Protein: Nicotinate phosphoribosyltransferase
Amino acid sequence: MEKINFTMLTDFYELTMANGYLKNGFKDKIAYFDMFFRKVPDGGGFAIMAGVEQLIEYLENLKFDDKDIEYLRSKNIFCEEFLEYLRDFKFSCDVWAVPEGTPIFPNEPVVTVRGPVIQAQFIETMVLLTINHQSLIATKANRIVRAAQGRGVMEFGTRRAQGYEGAIYGARAAYIGGCIGTACAIADRDFEIPALGTMAHSWIQMFPSELDAFRAYAEAYPDNCTLLVDTYNVLKSGVPNAIKVFNEVIVPKGFRPKGIRIDSGDITYLSKEARKMLDEAGFPDCKIVASNSLDEYIIRDILIQGAKVDLFGVGERLITSKSEPVFGGVYKLVAIEEDGKIIPKIKISENVAKITNPGFKELWRLFDRKTGKAIADVLTIRDEVIDDSKPYEIFDPEHTWKRKTVTDFYAKRLQVKIFDKGACVYKSPKLKEIRDYCSEQIDNLWDEVKRFENPHVYYVDLSTDLWEMKQQLLKRYSVK
Amino acid sequence: MEKINFTMLTDFYELTMANGYLKNGFKDKIAYFDMFFRKVPDGGGFAIMAGVEQLIEYLENLKFDDKDIEYLRSKNIFCEEFLEYLRDFKFSCDVWAVPEGTPIFPNEPVVTVRGPVIQAQFIETMVLLTINHQSLIATKANRIVRAAQGRGVMEFGTRRAQGYEGAIYGARAAYIGGCIGTACAIADRDFEIPALGTMAHSWIQMFPSELDAFRAYAEAYPDNCTLLVDTYNVLKSGVPNAIKVFNEVIVPKGFRPKGIRIDSGDITYLSKEARKMLDEAGFPDCKIVASNSLDEYIIRDILIQGAKVDLFGVGERLITSKSEPVFGGVYKLVAIEEDGKIIPKIKISENVAKITNPGFKELWRLFDRKTGKAIADVLTIRDEVIDDSKPYEIFDPEHTWKRKTVTDFYAKRLQVKIFDKGACVYKSPKLKEIRDYCSEQIDNLWDEVKRFENPHVYYVDLSTDLWEMKQQLLKRYSVK
Structure:
């Protein structure tokens, strides 16, 4: 896809702050920011990281052009020195991110940025916008895919997405989350996400009768014929006409029918009846596709009721994550450097859940060597090392008496460096590889973490050193 | 903003159908499609039309380039004649739309397209994606703006939007719906939506103390100084420090402080206490800005409780329309032409609410001449004229015994032609004009229609001729 320069897609306060930092002599002041989120959407047990590739594209293309400078000058609040700074802007931060497709949990730094505060602060809006959107949709798609228990889920939401990139990158994220394809042609062209689709009701209406419409479609696509059977009446008209056309057109040409699609009515009842009719007509291999306001809850329920659906097309409730359309990632200052020394910073809040984890940190995942399952994540101070050759004690950072000693495990750092002093040092895997990696990593989670409601809360703990640093800062900054 | 060619941002089935239409000799077959929606989001009484300007841009730039043709050829399902057709594609439809900013109601054709079925069908995805998204956000923004009862509402949601255009066109739609500005700089640069913003918590944390941070900001922006007062403790630290800096820096420079912003905690309590402190300190003109997970319900409630807030910054719940993030517009075939005659088409459904209004129609709004208020909307067959010099009887299309005779009214056609045989014949008003028009039109609605919950259902009726045509088609197509 062509690329737009989104440098100015930023909250205005990033610019007023940047100008202020420059005025205050903070041009070379080094700051550290973490992006993290506080709550998994839909009350789920984990989220899925997505959007890193687009974040990289944005950071590689950061550039203020003349039009931007002129616009900013016209606001009459920025000093000329700042506008000069923007004109010569060269991104020089270090950036680390958790790779796309990785299961992620609340309060973990999924992106960490180190660099001149003006720059590290400026990119906040796009870091959040990019990662929040795609992680939201990847997470939702994966819930729906898991509900379908191995049946294919196709992303059908383009027309109900929130804006053009909501559709395109939404399709990308849905594929990472496990969808098998999309209805969106541009997502196929640009990301090689298989595009699928057959006909709308209007196709049927364009012909004198449903039978004529089916015949015309079967003649045009004999080797790939899925017919939409609910325009008039699924069981009295749609399925009988489809069977007739399969026998009259598809079979004589030496092909097998691909499927029928039901887009309205009671999917459970209609799919069971249609399955019987297709089987009796000698088409047990003809798939039944269901669409129409589906999500993980409806799919789970109709499968419990014995619906005979082979493929689900999921639209608006996936592409907008309708039941919870916001991924609440935030971007917080966690440290500054003074004379080359890292000084941790903390954000206090009257709401205890909003207090940040200070300092330049490392994010580790501990895996059980026997089962391969993820046991816990641990945040440490950046230069700490978790020695996985010895038992390691983890503890709940709030209820510190809750302790557990982990043995026979291996510890893996989750963040990878994606920018080094402003230069990209990471190559995004192919989308298919990200999707496979995502699936593998989710296999490493316990089923208890994967429940749709009231999942087991996966441990995200702090090392003893980090916990103590946090306590000291809390004491120092709390207002009496 | 630079423009991307979104021709391929389409559901794949638009292409398979188009190829099939061509194969079936439907190249010059004329079809009519309506876009309409069935339900106002959030149970509201009306929605707001938005997105027409971007729809026009899309239609003006429809073009399949070599890359698109190559991609389609690689799918091995499209005939060469079709790929040739796409290479020479020239949009030639007539398009009518309800102007942006107009209050719209369920089952009304807000966009109508007439033209070769291949083209008129093809644009479905983008018509829906564009209008659905912006109408959703304009409608939500207007609810929030009405809840604020004259206080300014600023759109602060960029970082939580669903994709880049979700943020940018979301800001545009929010402005149409009545927001006074946005946090999004690019929306200001490109749409002249006033961008607003001051500082993040990280600004405060970058300095040795809150007081130092406030001083530095006040020195940088003495004439436009809004301070974020909730980093440590609003009433014990933030507001006292702000007052100190207003007195020490702002006033001596001959300015007045602009405001304080509260982004966490109990807005009602904190704003009342902060108001008292500011008033006692001699700053009754200093505004209080509130943000943090606001929407129309919370704003209504805190104002009932006497919160002293002058301006609201509303983020994720506006930019995603969180409580209902889907605007369910659909695009349905309503007629075809045969030998130059318009043949109405209907889509039957087992769900009665999903049955379409057939035919090429006109959408009228009847206004009371005395009050200026909108009385009802009426759909007629296209060439019918509502004579507003005489009394006009309207009736409920389902409960036809419910009748009302309207007198002393004027009737206005709501659709305007935006494309004539593929050429744009409409110039979008300036965004500010759209916003003003929207506000005026909403003033013409009865308060009963504007209730947030259980609003009066505004009449959208059919003319007698249209109603009878629909009944005939229902009889003809219903399956026994």
Remarks:
- Chain B touches chain A through 107 residues (CB under 8 Å).
- Chain B has 16 helices and 21 strands.
